[in-house]
Amino acid sequence: MIKTMFDQTKSLNTKVDSGTQNIGPYASIAHLMGLRWATRNLSLPKAKRVSRPQSGSHHSRFRGRGMEFSEVRVYQPGDDVRSIDWRVTARRQTPHTKLFNEERERPLLIVCDQSQSQFFGSQYTFKSVRAAETAALFAWTALEHNDRVGGIVFSEKGHQEVKPARSRKSIMKMLNYITDFNRSLNIKFNENKTDPSNRFTFNDALNETIRLSKPGTMIVLISDFMHLGDDTEKQLSRLAKHNELLMIRTYDPIEEQLPPPGFYPVSDGKETLVINSSSPQARNNYQAWAQKHKQSLVTLSQRYKAPFIEVSTHEEPSTTLQRVLQSLRAS
User: Fold this and answer.
1) Of all residues in the chain, what percent are helix, strand and coil, respectively (each to 5)?
2) Under-50 pLDDT residues of the chain
3) pLDDT at residue 101 in the model
4) Closest CA to 167 of 152, 153, 148, 184
5) Which of 98, 118, 255, 290 is disulfide-compatible with 128, CB 3.0–4.6 A?
6) pLDDT value, residue 24
7) Cα–Cα distances in angstroms (integers) from residue 276 to residues 1, 117, 279, 290, 291, in the given order
8) What's the CA gap between 311 and 329, in Å, rounded?
9) DSSP letter for each residue of 239-276
10) 73 φ, ψ to 5°?
């Protein structure tokens, strides 16, 4: 953690303005609730798989008895006799039946990472706040489309879950969990003092997601993906087999390129060292490492056909999501 940047960020104005929002190091429940009005211009990609035959705003690729009339065709054995179109049958002297596009719901499961690595930002806010905002935007957007919404919030200290439901109450429960985890983050965290056997990991969160999700669920993973484990790919493969995945990476621009040449004190809350960013070799090595990490995530997302979206601490998440989701709907 760059301590000088943390000190500067703590004093940021938390008032929402018309430009880039200076939220600061922590999210508030009032701010996450207010993001509901930013979802008016957002919509999730269309479902590619079918879940359960209940009401919702996503059209199934299968046809059956449902909400929207599609066409009339010759009656086939097994068709519902209640759907026979008697006028067409009488006119053509052959039984015909009506077909409908059945509207089916698609549950949304949001996995929000509030681990210590997310507690970082160089100017406007922290990655942990952007993750919280992104989770809120997805939740409100899904509710607007009458989908069930649930989620898992986690950090090294543990996790909380909310089973998917179609209600504002369930979203508020999840947002409260997010803000609780978010506000428990602090610069004095010392990972070395945490018992590894009790530490909740990214892979643990994926295991809980596998347990909680049902086939046909859209799963949104929001993280900086800094702590992938040996079994991560196996778990993602299990999730992608019967669900749709979205990978949302939170990042700060300073994680991809060192700041302007100079000397910068860096602290983990206990020890401090100074980075000399004037060295061309150090700058190149740092940038190469960042690009390699990013490319590994892109490759991972392509392997499981999971759209890869990046949310910067320097750009409002609603702006990022609107741009990317529009491209997903067009594809």
Assistant:
1) 40, 25, 35
2) 1-20, 49-55, 60-66
3) 59
4) 148
5) 118
6) 76
7) 15, 22, 7, 18, 20
8) 18
9) HHHHSEEEEEEEE-GGGTSPPSSSEEEEESSS-EEEEE
10) -140, 170
Domains of the chain, by residue range, sit at 3-50+105-330, 58-104
Q: What letter represents residue 331's amino acid?
A: S
How many C-beta neighbours within 10 Å does residue 78 have? 5
> Which residues, 6+ apart, have CB-to-CB distance to 43 below 8 Å?
141, 145, 325, 329
d(CA 245, CA 225): 14
CATH level 2 (architecture), domain 3-50+105-330: 3-Layer(aba) Sandwich (3.40)
Span 16-29, pLDDT tens digits: 333 445 567 899 99
Q: What is the three-state SS of 44-84?
A: CCCCCCCCCCCCCCEEEEEEECCCEEEEEEECCCCCCHHHE
The residue type found at 52 is R
C-beta atoms surrounding 200 within 10 Å: 16
d(CA 10, CA 32) in angstroms, rounded, equals 19
The span from the CA of 182 to the CA of 263, in Å, is: 30
Q: Is 151 helix (H, G, I), strand (E, B) or coil?
A: strand
* Length of the chain, in residues: 331
Residue 7's pLDDT is 38
**What is the C-alpha R_g of the chain?**
24
Quote the pLDDT of residue 62: 37
Q: Supply the pLDDT for residue 229.
A: 84
pLDDT digits (tens, 9 = 90+) for 218-255: 999 999 999 898 899 999 999 999 999 999 999 999 89
pTM over 0.85: no
